[in-house]
């Protein structure tokens, strides 16, 4: 049964979690400055040296356990009382969920999940007390890999994401450099009638019809709410 609430779709990237202390990828001292992306986050890298890839995601899980959602995550979640809120995130952290968002679609996978190497439908949530995996880890009788979309792999959730953006009354991009496709192309599927916003202290170039709020996620969300 549909409801009369307007549909607001958030497209979030690493900048959404920056104020929670999680490193972004392409800012100064970002993850890709310190780790060779094709060794730790690509299909070839995983085939070449799975132990290194497991180690990289173990480190990122450890960082995530120390992080808390920030005001930006919380303000997104609070909008659910007045809007039909959809969060489509490139982030693999669970900070949107922990802030209370109930409708989160992860385009690039989820850090706290692994899946069976021999059956990708078997996905397992890691417990906070057991976040480390190696190529030798066995869960439910299966060797596992990070439940992450590596570079060179398809983005299976892109179609559902496009369908959601096509129905939006409002689309809000937060904290992404808009350089990684197909995620970066989602904004172009917004209906001509939709209101578009982009919250980012160092925004990428976007079409003129997008209202750019040149602020961080938390301050930017406060500004957005004034304009809604
Ligand atoms: N608030 C909001 N945005 C911020 C903040 C902040 N406090 N700090 C930085 N940003 C912005 C930066 O200006 C930049 O536009 O966040 C963006 C981070 O860009 P990237 O590091 O490229 O992250 P993202 O766009 O999410 O990367 C996309 O690339 O490596 C892959 O799979 C990975 O999902 C990731 C994808």
Structure description:
By secondary structure, the protein is α/β, with parallel strands linked by helices. Helices cover 29% and strands 23% of the residues. The chain contains nine helices and ten strands. The chain has a six-stranded parallel sheet with strand order 3-2-1-8-9-10, with helices on both faces. Strand 6 and strand 7 (142-148) form a beta hairpin. Helix 6 (71-78) packs parallel to helix 9. The longest helix has 16 residues, at 50-65. The protein binds adenosine-5-diphosphoribose (APR). Residues 13-15, 18-19, 24-27, 30, 90, 108, 175-177, 179-180, 200-202, 216-217 line the site of adenosine-5-diphosphoribose. The site of adenosine-5-diphosphoribose has 22 residues, from helix 1.
Topology:
Blueprint: E1 7-12, H1 15-18, H2 31-34, H3 37-40, H4 43-48, H5 50-65, H6 71-78, E2 84-89, H7 95-99, E3 104-106, E4 109-116, E5 119-125, E6 138-139, E7 142-148, H8 158-166, E8 170-174, E9 195-199, E10 210-213, H9 217-227
Parallel strand pairs: 1-2, 1-8, 2-3, 8-9, 9-10
Antiparallel strand pairs: 4-5, 4-7, 6-7
Helix pairs in contact: 6-9
The structure holds adenosine-5-diphosphoribose.
């Amino acid at each position: 049964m549909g409801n009369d609430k307007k549909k607001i779709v958030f497209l979030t990237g690493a900048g959404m979690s920056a104020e929670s202390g999680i490193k972004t990828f392409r800012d100064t001292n970002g993850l890709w400055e310190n780790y060779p992306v094709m060794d730790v986050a690509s299909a070839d890298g995983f085939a070449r040296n799975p132990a290194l890839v497991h180690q990289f995601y173990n480190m990122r899980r450890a960082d995530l356990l120390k992080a808390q959602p920030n005001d930006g995550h919380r303000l997104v979640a609070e909008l659910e009382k007045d809007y039909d809120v959809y969060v489509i995130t490139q982030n693999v952290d669970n900070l949107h969920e922990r802030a209370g968002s109930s409708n989160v679609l992860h385009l690039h996978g989820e850090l706290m999940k692994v899946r069976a190497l021999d059956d990708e439908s078997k996905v397992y949530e890691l417990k906070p007390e057991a976040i480390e995996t190696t190529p030798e880890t066995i869960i439910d009788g299966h060797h596992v890999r990070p439940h992450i979309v590596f570079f060179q792999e398809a983005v299976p959730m892109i179609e559902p994401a496009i369908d959601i953006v096509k129905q939006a009354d409002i689309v809000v991009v937060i904290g992404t450099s808009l350089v990684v496709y197909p995620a970066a192309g989602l904004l172009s599927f917004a209906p001509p009638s939709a209101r578009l916003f982009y919250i980012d202290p160092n925004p990428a170039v976007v079409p003129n019809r997008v209202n750019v709020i040149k602020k961080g996620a938390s301050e930017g969300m406060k500004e957005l709410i004034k304009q809604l």
